[in-house]
Design goal:
By secondary structure, the protein is mostly helical. Helices cover 73% and strands 0% of the residues. The protein folds into two domains: 1-107, Orthogonal Bundle (Farnesyl Diphosphate Synthase); 126-292, Orthogonal Bundle (Farnesyl Diphosphate Synthase).
Length: 292
């Protein structure tokens, strides 16, 4: 029996026990967003933990080893579960954890469904060198849609905050793509856009072959420029937001922007080489952007 099936049958009761279960799941996952979420008051933090736990559920489906048909069926089941959530009939553990924040923070059904749309893009077939329009749509679904859910929980539902979600989500996802090239290639995936590959003379789309191509660093620098533009757009939009409410977004942006700059310093001659920020730098960024 799968974990999800078990959750539906024998999950803990709603309320404090349910929130504690979700909290343990998130803390055990070691997410890079942990310290940003810790800046929130407990009730809002629990809302973010529920969103993160749900994102892990659907992401694990898309990244799993099952055949595409089974992945798509599992994601379709989550579409039904989101409909059940908005009909006040959630069954799965994580969906039950989402029920209170969905009501309290007016989380939008279309944002959950957009995330599932993005996961279906990964589940249907291995993405290889999408065009720029498709890559942007993918980033909007798997990252910006999560940002839209997040700013509602943070406490700023203004147009400016949702502009931050649009731009920062794309910036974070592009940074992930540039950081995880080797890991994605070993899964048969290549998210670098076709137009930029061809601009630098790369005509193949086989992931490991692209990673060995001498023009790879130039391609990655161009993608990094797109990510940096999104970081700037998010930073500008954040000046029109409630500063206190958006502290978690500011910390996420600062940590990922520092990661992007570390990637640029390292270059992409060896995409398998790890890039990690020091603990002291992360703590400074949390203090600088989340507390001062």
């Amino acid at each position: 029996m799968s974990d999800t099936a078990f959750d539906a049958i024998a999950g803990p009761p709603d309320g404090a026990a349910l929130r504690e279960t979700i909290r343990h799941r998130v803390e055990a996952a070691g997410t890079s967003f942990y310290w940003a979420m810790r800046l929130l008051p407990q009730e809002r933090r629990d809302g973010m933990y529920a969103i993160y736990a749900w994102c892990r559920e659907v992401d694990d489906i898309a990244d799993g080893e099952r055949p595409a048909a089974l992945k798509l069926a599992a994601l379709a089941a989550w579409r039904d579960e989101i409909e059940a959530l908005y009909g006040a009939r959630p069954r799965q553990l994580v969906a039950r954890a989402l029920h209170a924040p969905m009501l309290q923070y007016r989380l939008r059904r279309e944002d959950f469904l957009a995330v599932i749309d993005g996961m279906e893009m990964d589940a249907r077939e291995d993405i290889r060198a999408p065009d720029l329009e498709t890559l942007d749509r993918y980033c909007a679904r798997v990252a910006s849609a999560v940002g839209h859910l997040s700013v509602q929980v943070f406490g700023d539902a203004s147009p400016a905050a949702h502009r931050v979600a649009e731009s920062l989500g794309r910036a974070l996802q592009l940074t992930n793509i540039l950081r995880d090239l080797d890991e994605d290639a070993r899964r048969g995936r290549l998210y670098l856009p076709r137009e930029i590959l061809e601009r630098h003379g790369i005509r193949v789309v086989e992931p490991l072959a692209v990673l060995r191509h001498p023009a790879l660093p130039a391609v990655c620098r161009d993608v990094a420029s797109i990510a940096e533009r999104h970081f700037r757009d998010a930073e500008q939009a954040m000046t029109r937001c409630n500063r206190r409410a958006m502290r978690p977004a500011a910390v996420m942006g600062a940590v990922y922007r520092a990661t992007l700059r570390a990637l640029l310093r390292r270059g992409w001659r060896d995409p398998a080489a790890a890039v990690a920020l020091s603990r002291s730098l992360k703590l400074w960024l949390v203090v600088r952007h989340g507390l001062l």
